[in-house]
Amino acid sequence: MSINERLKTIIEEQYNGNKRAFSMAIGVTPTVIENVVGSRQGKPSFDVLEKICANANISPDWLLMNRGKMLYTSPQDSSVTTKSQAASANLSPDMLTELLNRITEQAAEIGRLKEQIRQMNLEKGKPASDAYTSGDANVG
Asked: Which of 31, 77, 105, 139 has the fewest other C-beta atoms within 10 Å?
């Protein structure tokens, strides 16, 4: 199964075939997803793959190498399987651990950025009546 087919599987099984919902959930434009799963069949960028793993609870092992289960399990559970998977994929356990750590760190950063965006949207949505005013008029 190609990575394009695995992405189609995610969309079908987790988002009822709704590409737009999937793209919004992972934080990319619908065009990006269409370019990967549509007739063009382009390969997703590393950034897109990171977003999928971080925001759609998808196992990086499954997404990148078609190994293990589609849905992400805790790092303790995945570390048990990654050593055997690494041997069959010609990747060292250290390389996989490094990749998983990097993805985890970036997922945490994405979470922090999402919270910042949420806070900014809350601030942006406040009515003008909530704005601070000193009561002094500054007329030229």
From this structure: 139
